[in-house]
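Worked Example 4.2. Consider the chain below.
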Amino acid sequence: MDENLFAIVLGSILILWGLANVLFGYRFYRISLLVSIGILAAGYSFILLRESPNIVQILVPGLVALLFGLAAYYLRSLILILAGGIIMAIVAATPAVLFSLSETLAWILIISGFIAGCGLAYFFRDFAIYLVTAMWGTSFAFSGLTIIFLGTTFSAFQALGSGTWLVLSAWILLVAGGIFWQRRGQAALDIEPDQIGKANQLRIWQAALVSLALGLGVAGFLGMMRIYSPFATLTPPDINDFEPLSVDGYERLLVLAPHNDDEALGAAGLIMQAAAQGAEVKVVFLTNGDGFTFSTIQEFDNIFPSAEDYIGLGALRQQESINVLGLLGVPEENIIFLGYPDAGAPAMWTEHWSADNPYQSEFTQSSRSPYEDTFNPDSVYAGEDVLGDLRDIIDEFQPDIVAYPHGNDVHADHWGFYAFSRLALEIEQYLNPAFTPDTFVYLVHRPDYPSPEGYDPTEKLLPPAPIFNIYPDWYRLDMTPDQVALKETALEAYESQVDLLWALISKFIRKNEVFSTNITLPIQDIAQGEEINPDTWRDAQGQIIPPIQLDPSADILERALIPSADIKSLYLARSAPDKVVGCIETVSGADPTVFNILHLKGIGFGGIVDHVQDAEPSYTTDLDFLDRKYYACSTFSLAEMGDPVFIFAGAESKDFSSDQPLDHIAWQMVEIP
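Applying the procedure from the previous section yields the following structure tokens:
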């Protein structure tokens, strides 16, 4: 079937089904409930099979309406509603610690709306059936319209899927009209809708069927968040295919860790094996982990910690690191604390590079290290000082093996320290060709890692499937049972972290560790093609020019729900002798509330030049149903980058509600011949 025709047929079916619910849903609400759940479950299965999260924009409103409808229908007890409100109010307070004020207000608004809706459903319970069926019927009608527009007209799809007030108003009006129409029809029949009685008379098998269908829908939704179905498309990692990593022959190991405990989580086995083989091991901590509010509250019994309390936590974690690394075979004199701010790495990397504009810690209220044990007491919280300290350490120690954080780590300090570490190593290798260490990266923070969940020292550690399927070159470091036990003992010695983070820490107590690597790429020259469409880029031999970096899609909830902010890949190529073009590929098209930012650092003999540019959105003209490609491209000259030897490139997507990026792609180093 022609794809446009398929979209029209499928969309028309959903529109008719939705309107039937809007107008007459009270007559067949039980069937409507089951069919609606079935549509959602089937839709999410479709997402898994097609590997396209664009359809999330179609089905999420239906899911929200369904969950709200179930709550409105079954939570008729005022006590349950009030209890649920208290619980959700506690949950709503959590983002105040973790996120920005605007995100916190958004959470509170959503939860308050949900509670208010349940309350209205209780006080107007005679209208519950009308409310539920009109609401999810409207959602599916709009889903049908979206599918039709998606298959035929790009601009119409964007107009409908952008979440404008106009569309929201139309949705509300249709729901209200449906409630009025159904109530009028019920009154004309002169039948009192004993809805509470109907709800109480649901048979066990009906409730079981609803539970089963809802379970399928939830399973599909969770699978959608990982985007690639492990049953259909992803190649699961096999530990036996990983090349073994041995420390034999190495003399100097350098481990770079963002916080105190990351070195033990990601590389305790590497550290203990290198030390046991007689290699000199040095461990460098970017921060002292002094921004962990809950740990500070626990240690100092102060629900409103002061700057002194946070500094006290940092000093405590320094001593814990000394104790832990002593267990692993690293003497105290080989432990280096840089003293930079917890949660400050991205800001120092992008916004506070110059020492003339230092970053101030929101926890310690300081712009330089307040700790006595600091590698360089004269440094301030600025990117150039972080880079300078790392280069001094690397230049003096001359490691032949280095372990540092993975660029796809979702924790901001981890990917930030990855960028600093890789830049320092690349500069040192360029200036000193004899310096050729083996470098490995370790992963700590991702929602799907480590998997499976739970504590099991006999279980193998595997990289996340979404990352493995993009970059399959991984190494495994096998450990003996005694080494696994020593790693567990070392992690337990981080007493300030164990009580609060044992669920995470325990998952790293496995029989092996895993590491990946990075490579620097030469820049490609575009011999033919359109600058704004990397699909058309070809080199002088007519070969396709690939992206310089890939990124998993829909692997985290907020990225799955906002596909226009979900970055898939980053392109960088030279379109003229002094002209470079960079393109960010996203899952879905331009959204007026989302903007993509291209970050570049030009590394040359004149120093490091920062270049930040909002990319211009575009999309391919070869539009296949649900398979479009969307790009945001920028051009710039090498001269304005300081005629660099290397370009270090990254990208992120943001919206106007928060300073925190919705997505970012791991930075990649590109050499300019």
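The first helix runs from residue 3 to 24. The chain has three domains: 3-225, 251-518, 522-671. Compare this with Example 4.1 before moving on.
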